[in-house]
Structure formats: C-alpha cells, structure tokens
Write a structure and sequence with these properties.
Chain A has 189 residues and is mainly alpha-helical. Chain A has 7 helices and no strands. The N and C termini of chain A lie far apart (75 Å). In chain B, the strands form 7 sheets. A 4-stranded antiparallel beta sheet of chain B has the order 4-5-6-7. Chain B has a 4-stranded antiparallel beta sheet with strand order 8-9-10-11, with no helix packed on it. A 4-stranded antiparallel beta sheet of chain B has the order 12-13-14-15, with no helix packed on it. The longest helix of chain B has 27 residues. Classes of the chains: A mainly alpha (189), B mainly beta (393).
C-alpha cells in the first residue's frame, strides 16, 4: 500500500527523505511538512463535519493567520526542526481546509454551535501534538496510520477543490446570464 | 447575503491559491544543498581535516583537524581517514575517525555549526577495524548513530545523551555491514554468509529493537572494486559483477526481472569509489578510477549510468601515475546533493596516497549533473608542503 501512496504523493510532494519521518523504520510517503498539511486537513475535515463550529469572522481570521504562518517557515526564513515543520503543516492544513469548506458549509456557517469552537480548538491542539509525537516515537502501526490519515486529507482537499471549482463555474455562468439581461422587446412601430 | 458569498468565495480562492503555491513550492524545494563538507589539509600542521565549502559565497572554512602521529617514537603526522556528515537538522556535523593506532576504537565528534554550542566528543574503544567501518558513510538517523562494533554486533550511540545500546546477532546472520539509507531515512544492512555457498542478505535495521528485517537475498557476487547502491525506498540494490571477463552493472529488485548493463569493453578494469541512485531512480551516479589495460596512468572521475539503453555519461576529473595495477578508487568517493543536481568529490586522500599528484589536481570537484557535458567546477585544496614539512618540530 505504501508503494502506491509513495507514487500518489510524489505528484504533490518533493518527498525529501532527509525531511521525512520514518516511524518503525518505514519512511512515510510525504515529507514532514506535507504530513502535517494532509493529516491536519483530514482532522480538520472530521472536526468540521462532526462539530460544525460557527465560522465567525474571528474564526476565519485566526485561520488566516495559520495560512500566513506558512510563509516564514515554508520559505525557511525561520529556523525549524522536524516537529515544527509538521506543526506548521498542521496549521496550514486546518486553514486551507476551512477556507475551502466555507462556500460549501451552507447555513450552518453562521448558525453553528458556539461551544463547538472550543472543542474544535482542542482537536487542533491534539493534532498539533500527536502528529509529530506519533511520527517520531510510533512504530509500524503509526506509519500506516499517519500515511492513511495523510491520504484522507489529500483526498478531502482535492474533493473540496473540485467542488469549489464547480461552484465557482456555476456562479460565473449565472453572472454571465444575468449580465446578458432580459431579451429585447419586439419593435412594434 | 451577497457580501458574505463574495467573502466566502474570496477566502476559498485564497485557500486554493495557498494550497497550489504550497504544492508547487514543495516539489521544487530542496533541502539546504548550499554547503559541502570535504576533507582538506590543515595549512599549519599538514594534517587532514574537514572543511565546509559554501556554494553561495564560494568560500571554504576549515572546521576540524584531529592530529595523530605515525608511531610512538615519531612526530610525523599520519593522514587520518575522516568521515563527516550533516545531521538531518542541518545544524550539527558529525565527524568520525579511527582512534589510537587504528586497530581498534573509533572517535566521534558532534560539532554544532554555524551556531555556538558545546562540541561533544565520544570515544568508542570497542569498535573493531574502524578503518573499514569508515569506508561507507556513517549511519545517522535523527540524533542516533549506528555502527558495527564487531562483524556481528551493532552499537547505537545517542549523540545528545551519549547513551549506548548494543545488540549481538546470531552467527547465522553472517558478516554484517551497515549502510545509510539515502538522506538518513534509516539504516540498511548487507549480511555476507558463507555457510552454504556465498549468500548475501540485504535488509533494513529496526532502529529501536536493533533487529534485522531482511528485504532480499541474492547469490550474485559483487566484483572487487564494485560499489553498492540502493534506491531511496530500499527496493533495489545495484552493484557491479564480473561476467565473462567483462564488468556489468546489476540491479536487483524483489519480484522484478534483473537489470544488467555492460560497463566498458572485455578485460577493461574500472573500479568504483561510491555510487548512488539518482533521485528519480532512473540512473546511477558513481565515482570511478580507471587504468587502461597495460597502462600506468589512472583517471578518476564521475560516471552516470542510466538504467535504460540511454548512453552513459562520464567526466574525467584528474589523472595520476599509479604505482601498481590497482587504482585507489575508494579514496575518491563522491556525494550527491539532495536535489540530484550536483555531485561533489575531493581528491584529498589521493593526495595523501599518491606522491605524484599534481597540486592543481588536489581539489574539491563539483560536477553539474544537469549539464549534458557534466561540467565540473574546481575548488582548489592547498596541498601542504611535502612530507618533511609535516613533521612537527
């Protein structure tokens, strides 16, 4: 299975082995940061589906900060080790998934349970801690678990990207139609 | 409602854009390939030390010089075989060299660089035949170093705490050599067993349990002067074998047909120093030494052997007059950058071994593997004054 996943992730990840976790001696199919991104996205997808947190301005603002935090770390401006690389990936994964989820969230975006945000934050904290800890200290089971989680996250992001593209095209088509206006009235002169 | 829809669309677009940028950046990001560690000569003592070459500034800096003497009664400095390697964090360098008279014992140093932090020195007196253990790159994963203490006992050293762990394997396992998986992602091993005909087992070492996890077994005999290379996922093993008085490359993969490719003409002898699979796994890049049949001059260089019918590319970096039939291929080993774009090899040890080596050939060679002609850049390594001057007065 891991061979297939290696092939799958080679499309989206540099798979630098020097920056790849190898729990139980098994190198994961994506680098440390991508592991954070995709596993984080999987956890975020689960939390959004389960808890339905209210997507308030502050909630989105915090996720915007997560998104921007990738710049100093992704461009290697800030010193970082394997755990921090994974953690910044997790934050980025949460942010991207939330933003892609937003247009599809429908009415619950504003009517979600306010208490859910606290539980969502705990979920995020757990992902931030568990992803690097499992990758560093886990055995073979952790390798398969993390690879599976990253695959789910990658599929979730891909699915959301496609759905957003379809939604965007539909809106665009509607706008074009409305710009065309009503058909001209018949000349009765 | 309309404003909210626009906001959502903008944020979704921002998310999509960020993800796209991230993916595009990740496939082209290389780990920090800007610096190269290489053996050099200390201008003051003439001893072999380790220097770091910054490819961006074009500057070299000597980092470490262990000084050892040839015997108890002399003050002649002996050139030490030094191995140097970056830790995966890119902030520490590990150095290893034989301790004492070279029969037993290995010294290790962990050198923080460029930041200031304590230098850690380790003395491992029980490591047998340290010179042969240093023929291959050090096996370091995270902050743990793995080395064979004897042919059947592995030693794990925690470079932060100094904790040691040992494990002795059954004699049935045969003579074991540890090999670093590409980019420090794990430790591989090769076991040589003579019990019922010569047999080799290639596998992965469980880093926590120090247990052997065999991946494949083969009976093909690597030729003298062959390299041993394996791909990033340890699925393929490549080496050179002798077949019908001709050397050929052999690539073994479990469950796949054996790939072979002749290397040179019949009777032609070519030895190899080190080799690695290209990051794509479609070629092998190796350093070589070649003495033409009946000749005395050896040429040293780099060769790229595609694992297909594509032509072999090679570049000769220096030529020397050798005293015997055997070239010193093992003294000319190359390292490949993580992005697979550059190979680096230094002729420092050749300068120690071959007295006739011209000063201009003592250099760190950086070969551009993306260039069709394998263009090489040369960073001179100043040679110390000859033997008499290496004596410390």
């Amino acid at each position: 299975m891991l061979d297939w996943l290696n092939h799958f992730f080679s499309v989206v990840c540099g798979q630098d082995l020097g920056h790849t976790w190898a729990p139980g001696g098994i190198p994961l199919p994506c680098c440390q940061r991508c592991l954070g991104l995709y596993a984080g996205a999987a956890v975020a997808a689960g939390l959004h589906l389960w808890l339905r947190p209210r997507l308030t301005g502050r909630f989105l603002g915090v996720h915007g900060a997560f998104l921007l935090a990738m710049a100093p770390f992704g461009f290697h401006w800030a010193p970082q080790g394997p755990a921090l690389r994974t953690a910044t990936g997790v934050l980025f994964g949460f942010a991207v998934l939330t933003y892609l989820w937003l247009p599809l969230a429908g009415s619950y975006a504003d009517k979600g349970n306010p208490c859910s945000s606290v539980r969502y934050a705990f979920g995020l904290l757990a992902a931030l801690i568990l992803a690097p800890v499992l990758a560093a200290l886990g055995g073979k089971v952790a390798a398969y678990l993390l690879s599976g989680l990253a695959s789910v996250g990658a599929l979730a992001l891909a699915g959301l990207a496609v759905l957003n593209a379809v939604l965007g095209l539909a809106i665009l088509a509607r706008m074009v139609r409305s710009l065309g206006g009503a058909p001209p009235a018949a000349d009765t002169r | 409602m309309k404003t909210q829809m626009v906001r959502n669309a903008v944020l979704a677009l921002a998310g999509l854009l960020a993800l796209t940028l991230y993916i595009l950046a990740c496939t082209s990001f290389s780990p920090d390939d800007t610096k190269v560690l290489y053996p050099t000569f200390d201008p003051s003592s003439g001893a072999v030390g380790i220097a770091v070459y910054d490819r961006e500034t074009g500057r070299s800096e000597t980092l470490f010089v262990p000084v050892a003497y040839e015997g108890k009664e002399t003050n002649t400095i002996t050139p030490l075989l030094l191995r140097s390697q970056w830790l995966a964090d890119g902030r520490n360098i590990v150095l290893a060299w034989p301790a004492g008279d070279g029969d037993n014992g290995l010294n290790l140093a962990m050198l923080p660089w460029p930041a200031r932090a304590p230098v850690r020195l380790f003395s491992l007196p029980s490591v047998e035949q340290p010179g042969s253990r240093l023929m291959f790159p050090l096996c370091i994963v995270g902050h743990r170093l793995f080395v064979m203490e004897t042919d059947s006992q592995v030693l794990r050293v925690d470079l932060r705490t100094g904790d040691l762990a040992r494990h002795k394997f059954d004699t049935d396992s045969g003579k074991l050599s540890l090999l670093e998986a590409p980019d420090g992602s794990g430790v591989l091993y090769l076991a040589e067993n003579d019990q019922s005909g010569k047999k080799y087992t290639f596998g992965r070492l469980n880093l926590d349990m120090l247990a052997l996890m065999p991946l494949m077994t083969f009976t093909n005999e690597p030729a003298p002067g062959s390299f041993l290379a394996f791909d990033g996922r340890a699925q393929r093993v490549a080496f050179v074998q002798e077949h019908d008085d001709q050397r050929q490359l052999l690539v073994l993969e479990k469950g796949a047909p054996v790939f072979t490719r002749p290397l040179g003409a019949k009777g032609e002898k070519r030895d190899f120093g080190s080799a690695a699979f290209s990051p794509r796994g479609d070629a092998i890049c190796a350093s070589f030494a070649h003495i033409p049949k009946g000749g005395t001059n050896a040429s040293y260089g780099l060769v790229e052997i595609p694992l297909s019918d594509a032509p072999v590319r090679q570049v000769t970096l220096l030529s020397t007059a050798e005293s015997g039939d055997d070239a010193n291929a093992l003294l000319f080993q190359a390292g490949i950058s993580h992005d697979g774009a550059t190979a680096a090899a230094a002729s420092t040890y050749l300068a120690c071994q071959i007295k006739e080596l011209k000063p201009e050939d003592c250099a760190l060679f950086l070969v551009d593997l993306k260039d069709p002609e394998l263009k090489a850049a040369k960073v001179p390594i100043p040679m110390p004054p000859r033997r008499p001057a290496t004596v410390v007065k």
